[in-house]
Amino acid sequence: MKMANFTLHHLLPCLLFFAAPLVAFAASTPDDFLQCLSLHSVNAFAISKLVYTPMNSSYSSVLDITIQNLRFLTPFAPKPIYIVTPLNVSHVQAAILCSRRYGLQMRTRSGGHDYEGLSYLSEVPFVILDMVNFRLISVDAEDKTAWVQSGATAGELYYRIAEKSKTLGFPAGLCPTVGVGGHFSGGGYGTLLRKYGLAADNVIDAQLVDAQGRLLDRESMGEDLFWAIRGGGGGSFGVVVSWKVKVVPVPSIVTVFTILRTLEQNATKLVHQWQLVANKLPNDLFIRLILQSNNSGPNGTRTMQASFNTLYLGGVDSLLEVTRSSFPELNVTRQDCTEMSWIESAVYFAGFPRGTPLEILLNRSSNTKTFFKNKSDYVRESIPESGLEGMWERFFEEDEGVAQMIWNPYGGKMAEIPESAIPFPHRAGVLYKIQHITAWTTGGNEVAPKHVSWIRSFYSYMAQYVSKSPREAYINYRDLDIGMNNVIGSTSYKQASVWGKKYFKKNFDRLVRVKTVVDPENFFRHEQSIPPFSS
Ligand SMILES: Cc1cc2nc3c(=O)[nH]c(=O)nc-3n(C[C@H](O)[C@H](O)[C@H](O)COP(=O)(O)OP(=O)(O)OC[C@H]3O[C@@H](n4cnc5c(N)ncnc54)[C@H](O)[C@@H]3O)c2cc1C
C-alpha cells in the first residue's frame, strides 16, 4: 500500500493558520495541560514521562516512527503540541478530559498507517494520543478467543496466536505492521477474507473510552455503539483500548504460490478470466492479483505484469485439483507451489523471503516506507478486455514501477454476511475490490503533484467500469479526494454524506444516529469522521 501528495488543504492552511494559535496556546497553557493530566491519572508521577512536547529531544522520533506515508514526514506538516503515550486507561481518560478542557483536538494513533495521515495531522492545535504502549495480547486457545490492545499490530497478534497453536489464525491484514486500533475500526481484510470475512466481523467485545471519559465494554456501550465501532472508521466514536476477537481454525499445512504473467504471456486474457472465477472459487482459495508495469517483456521491454498471489487452506495435491477444475487457464504446476504453516504464510504475504524468522512479525518497522497516494473501487461487473487494454495504456504513461493495482477477490463468506451486519457494506454482488496505488521512493514531495495527478486521472477512466451510485470505496483506504468535513467549525450531514455513502452506503445514516447520541459535541472529529446531526 502506498500513496502521495501533501495536498493544499493539508499544507497551506497549516502554514497560514496553524503557527499563530500554536504560539498563543503554548505560551498560556502547557503547564496547565500537564497538571490536568496528572490530576486525572492513576500513577500521576509517570505522566511527565509519557508526554512529549517539541522541547523534548525524543519528540521527533516518537512522532515520526510510525508515520507510513513519507508525503507527511516533512518539516512542513502540522505538528502536535503534545504526544501522550498512555500506559493505563486512566491516562487515556485524562488525555480526553484535558484536551476537551483546553480546547485541543485529539488525534488517536495506533499503527500510524492512515493513508491521509489523519491519526497524526491536524490543521488546528492538537494532541496525539499514541497507543503504542497498549500492546498486550492474551490468547485463549481453548476458548478460541483473544484480547488484543489497540496499539498492537496485526503481525504481533498472528505471532501470539501461533505461539499457542499452529492451527489457529486470524482474518486481518496482509501487512503485519498495521495497528489493530485503526485497522479493525475500518474493517480489516487479509488472505482469510473469503473464508472468515473481515477482522471486524470477528470482533466479539471491545473496551472503549468515550468522549466523557467513561470506560465502556460491549454490555455497557450497548449494541448500537458496538455495531458502529466495528467498521465505521477510526477516530469517530471514542478511543478503542482493546478488542476481543474470535480466533479461527486454519489447517496445519497451507499452500502458497505467486505466478507471474506478462502481456506476451497472455496476461490480458488471464486477468479477464480471473474476474469471472476468483469470487466463485472454494472459500479455502484466495487468489489476488497484483498488476504493474515493468521491464519484464522480451529483451527487457516495458510490459504489464500480472502476479497471481495465492493462499490455499490445504495441501498442494488438493490445490492442484481445485485449480485444474476451476481455473485451468492459469496452469498451476506443483513446482509453483510451496507448502508451509499458516503463520509462515503471513510472513510470505508480507513479502519476506522463505526462511525469514517468524519474529519479523513483531518488528513494527519492517514495512518499507514510501511516498504514496492510493484510491479504491469495487467491481460488480467484469471489465471487458478492451477496458483492461485501456488501463495498460494508462499505466505506460506513468513512470515504470510506480503505479500498481491490487485486486482482491470477494465472494465466499464476504457474500454471506448481510450489508448491515456491521458498517462495512461491500458484500454480496461485489466481484472484487481494487486498490489503485501510486508509490515512489525518489523525488520526494516535489514529484507528488505529477503522480497524484496521474492516479486521479486513472480513477476517472475507471469510473465507467466500477460500482456506481454510490461509487463505493473502502474506509481503510482513506481518500480525501472523495470528500471531507470542514476541519474548522461545524460539520454538515450533507457534506459528510458525499464521502460517507461511498464508504458505508445506507449504513452511513445509522452511524450518524449513533454519533449523535454518543458524541453530540463532536469531540472525536477529523476530516472524515462521522458527524452528529446537530453539528
Ligand atoms: C503499508 C500498509 C499496508 C496495509 N495493508 C492493509 C491490509 O492488508 N488490509 C487492510 O484492510 N488494510 C490495510 N491497510 C490499511 C489499514 O487497514 C488502515 O490504514 C488502518 O486504518 C490502519 O490502522 P492503524 O492503527 O495502523 O492506523 P492509524 O493511522 O493509527 O489510525 C487510522 C485511523 O483510525 C483511528 N484510530 C487509530 N487508533 C484508534 C483507536 N485505538 N481507537 C479509535 N480510533 C483509532 C485514527 O485516528 C485514524 O483515523 C494498509 C495500510 C498500509 C499503510
How are strands sequenced across the largest beta sheet? 15-12-14-13-17-18-16
Characterize the largest beta sheet: strand count, sense, and whether it forms a barrel. Answer: 7 strands, antiparallel
Report helical residue fraction.
25-40%
Helix count, DSSP H or I runs of 4 or more residues:
17
Mean pLDDT, all residues = 93
The secondary structure category is alpha+beta
Distance between the termini: 34 Å
* Overall 3D form: globular
Bound molecules: flavin-adenine dinucleotide
Beta-strand fraction estimate: 15-25%
Strand tally: 18
Spans of 5+ residues with little confidence (pLDDT < 50)? 1-28
Radius of gyration over alpha carbons? 23 Å
Give a description of the structure.
- By secondary structure, this protein is an alpha+beta fold.
- 32% of the residues lie in helices and 19% in strands.
- The longest helix has 21 residues.
- The N terminus is likely disordered.
- The site of flavin-adenine dinucleotide has 36 residues, from strand 3, helix 7 and strand 10.
Q: Helices, strands, pairings?
A:
Layout: H1 8-28, H2 30-39, H3 47-50, E1 51-52, H4 59-64, E2 82-84, H5 89-101, E3 105-109, E4 126-130, E5 137-140, E6 145-149, H6 154-164, E7 168-169, H7 180-185, H8 193-196, E8 203-209, E9 215-216, H9 218-229, E10 239-246, E11 248-249, E12 254-262, H10 267-277, E13 285-294, E14 303-312, H11 316-326, E15 338-340, H12 342-349, E16 371-379, H13 385-397, E17 403-409, H14 413-416, E18 432-440, H15 448-462, H16 493-504, H17 507-518
The structure holds flavin-adenine dinucleotide.
Residues 1, 68, 107-115, 118-119, 131, 150, 173-175, 178-179, 181-183, 185-190, 234-235, 239-240, 367, 476, 526 line the site of flavin-adenine dinucleotide.
